[in-house]
Design brief:
This protein is α/β, with parallel strands linked by helices. It has 15 helices and 10 strands. The longest helix is centred in the middle third of the chain and has 20 residues, at about 150-170. The radius of gyration is 20 Å and the shape is globular.
Length: about 350
């Protein structure tokens, strides 16, 4: 719980370190010069577990801002398949510890073929940091809990800043748009703080729903990785079986599982386009099948309240940055579900903090 509460400070400190008073984004790209970034056509993100979900967010944001084709791959799969890339492909490796075995093996494979590596890591002088061409240290501080919380939101923020800087260097982001995005990013730490103030309400919701055998998590676009991460957190510490899905995939199988016994967590914060309406339609489909809907929604949204059994309201932030806020609500939901079940939250069974062997 302590590390969940540290997230506003971690994100604010990162923004202060990497964005100066003039709105200039400062990232050390090492030998990856501006010319390389301008001609870059392809990025491959490799990571495992929670870091992979951060990588999925990075893929979405990079593709949103730039014309670069971006893939995100699990380190455990990347190293054993035959990915096609060359020295003009940038590999982004994401790992809290910098010691994740499959991520390191993927990096070594990529470097052996001449591809440069940019890593996002929390631990200074870790193996990953030493073997990368450039490193973005998240500086989230030691994370003692086995289930990652503050390291994940720090990875999201790092990937957001990386994406903004790359888009700027490539001339794909105007100064006006960059400044607006940075203004919106600066609002995130306070928004997270306000979510933390709702912890007693979230604890009551967790108490109602923790006894079910399974749970379903649904999100779209930038919040699809958050659905995956929310489900993983629930599995890791509450031991309730949970699956995260892109909400548009619900009809392709998961809908068969929905019943009056299943909590369905729907991430339905507002968007600037019609994706919000798509999510409302998904909620109605769950409601029609008597699923027990827990919605994460924007403050003041009464439409969602009329459909859901329970609502966790979060402050309105720009959709691109909403995962950093929404995931905190799901971290708290998992924490209090685990607490209600009497589990050891900091040391879940069968899990290690860093997966350093296959």
């Amino acid at each position: 719980l302590k590390e969940i509460h540290e997230q506003p400070r971690v994100l604010w400190s990162m923004i202060e370190r990497h964005v100066d008073e003039n709105g200039e984004i400062n990232i050390d790209f090492g030998d990856l010069d501006s010319e390389f970034l301008r001609r870059l056509e392809r990025i491959m993100v490799v990571a495992c577990g929670t870091a992979f979900y951060a990588g999925l967010y990075g893929k979405l944001f990079l593709e949103h801002l730039t014309e670069i084709a971006v893939e995100a791959d699990l380190g455990s799969e990347f190293r054993y398949r035959a990915p096609k890339f060359d020295q003009d492909t940038l590999i982004i490796a994401v790992s809290q510890s910098g010691e994740t075995a499959d991520t390191l093996a993927s990096v070594r494979s990529a470097k052996s073929r001449g591809a440069p590596v940019f890593s996002i890591c929390n631990v200074p002088m870790s193996t990953l940091a030493r073997e990368s061409d450039a490193v973005f240290y998240t500086q989230a501080g030691p994370e003692i809990g086995v289930a990652s919380t503050k390291a994940f939101t720090a990875q999201l923020a790092a990937l957001a800043l990386f994406s903004l800087r790359v888009a700027e260097v490539r001339g794909e982001l105007t100064a006006e748009d960059k400044n607006q995005l940075l203004t919106d990013l600066r609002r995130v730490p306070q928004a997270i703080h306000r979510v933390l103030l709702a912890k007693e309400h979230i604890a009551e919701i967790a108490e109602k729903h923790h006894s079910g055998p399974s749970a379903l998590y649904l999100g779209r676009r930038f919040n699809y990785p958050v659905a995956l991460e929310g489900a993983l957190k629930n599995k890791e510490i509450s031991y309730q079986h949970a699956e995260g899905y892109a909400a548009g995939e619900m009809k392709h199988g998961p809908i068969a599982l929905i019943s009056e016994y299943m909590p369905v967590v729907c991430i339905c914060t507002r968007t600037a386009d019609n994706l919000y309406e798509k999510m409302i339609s998904n909620i109605k489909e769950v409601q029609a099948r008597h699923g027990r809907i827990i919605a994460v929604a924007t403050e003041g949204d009464r439409r969602v309240a009329e459909l859901a059994e329970d609502v966790i309201y979060v402050p309105e932030v720009r959709e691109e940055f909403s995962p950093m806020v929404n995931v905190v609500a799901l971290q708290l939901l998992a924490y209090y579900a685990a607490h209600a079940r009497g589990n050891d939250i900091d040391k879940p069974r069968n899990l290690a903090k860093s997966v350093t062997v296959e």
